[in-house]
Methyltransferase (Gossypium darwinii), 613 residues
Amino acid sequence: MVSKHNPSGNKKRSPLSIFAVIGLCCFFYILGAWQRSGFGKGDSIALEVTKQADCSILTNLNFETHHNDVEIVEPSKPKAQVFKPCDVKYTDYTPCQEQDRAMKFPRDNMIYRERHCPPEEEKLHCLIPAPKGYMTPFEWPKSCDYVHYANVPHKSLTVEKAVQNWVQFKGNVFKFPGGGTMFPQGADAYIDELASVIPIADGSVRTALDTGCGVASWGAYMLKRNVLAMSFAPRDNHEAQVQFALERGVPAVIGVLGSINLPYPSRAFDMAQCSRCLIPWTANDGMYLMEVDRVLRPGGYWVLSGPPINWKTYYQVWKRTKEDLKAEQKKIEELAEQLCWEKKYEKGDIAIFRKKVNDKSCRRNSANMCKPRGSDDVWYKKMETCITPFPKVSSASEVAGGELKKFPARLFAVPPHISKGLVEGVSVESYQEDNKLWKKHVNAYKRINRLIGTARYRNVMDMNAGLGGFAAALESPKSWVMNVVPTIGKDTLGVIYERGLIGIYHDWCEGFSTYPRTYDLIHANGVFSLYQDKCSFEDILLEMDRILRPEGAVIFRDDVDVLNKVRKIAGGMRWDTKMNDHEDGPLVPEKILVAVKQYWVGGIKGNSTSSAE
């Protein structure tokens, strides 16, 4: 019987097959020996190929990724340009708010104080020097009260505002007692009075706008109460006021209520204030007050202290008639009613208005409503004398645009912009995944640079903020983040404000509205991929260098090919750089480039790394 494991049975192999196998083995052995002897055709072909390839033996073969070490070589292009320091007269250069250029524009509606950027042929292609003696700013919270004189060597405000207690010069530092024009005895007492009406303490108010901020003492003291204030003031005869604010570690930008919209989204701020900001609120049929209304959240508060409030006491000091001031206050209150604001408080120098949560009980003139448009399409858009409509609601108690949780819960709660589907391509699920991703990224950054998350990096900028995930993961009283949403990208700034963070619209083909040396850490995620067909990498990097403090750091996250180009330019900018793999490993084409700006100052001769020759 045939076994099922051996169907052919126990059949033995024939001697013939065994001899055949042995014969074949011998034949191939002899053939191989013949070819190795040098007489075979195969050897001559192989020898010719070897000669053409000119191969050499690699004694130390390394299979590790070389993105960290290899620079792209482009023989057709010159080596990396070395950028020279600018003349010391450019120490405080602000490209889009320069005085000489500003004076060429009309003074009507403060047009001359708005952004006026240089044409291509007038752009500087050099490194802005720090002033001689520049020092690393004091760490927060000491920086709130003290600034090194060498960093902002301008004393005019200590004389002009001496009575109002803005700033004092003592030895080699400026001291900020916390005073202001309308609170010469200190901002704390002033804020305490506001807090008797406005729920500042419980997290209901998180984002604030300070129009005409001076040295931003109000914003500084609001920070101590966990409120982020976006302060702005023009670059004018009040020398370096915004520069002082940023040197203190307080959010601020150069800006003005003029003829174009503010660079913020609608319904951004929980409160806004004008403390003797001298903005003509009744001019142009109330256009400036309507702009504040646009950026004020339903249920938000507006504080006015200064003219014309308490005109009966101050009319002589202000050198105006009682009738004029009385009429101005009446006009403001009429405008407030049109905007659907209620006056909640008036005592002494302070009046407080609250915007209603929706328009169900408003008496508005429909003819004066703004025409439908992308309400956040505001970059260089002309300001209009019209009222921004409330988002639609279904009941008298519903908050127009969506109700927000109190901070800090609102930081990671789903923002109304996302829950209502107002951001194209972003769902609740993708928003939550984005938060997880940025927590992972920030943890990776902290492994690379252990100073991230400490008071060493107080003023932080995210150049392409997306949904605000980077700032949310970094959130701490030790630092704040200016979340920039590029005007050529997806509009997500409304989401950022709904999270209780602050930010601004900007086009990185132009200079940012700040002074030199105002940020400790800059984060650039995908910025150069976004702008690679829009403007030159060189211009963006030189602007980053302008606003970065000496010994400040930059984190780039982008495609490796893009980062190699960035690294090549940065090599001529007195930056030390290092490429790092993505946290998921070397096979991921996205890399992390870290840079540190070297310390050097203007006006010193004979030192190649510390001079501005």
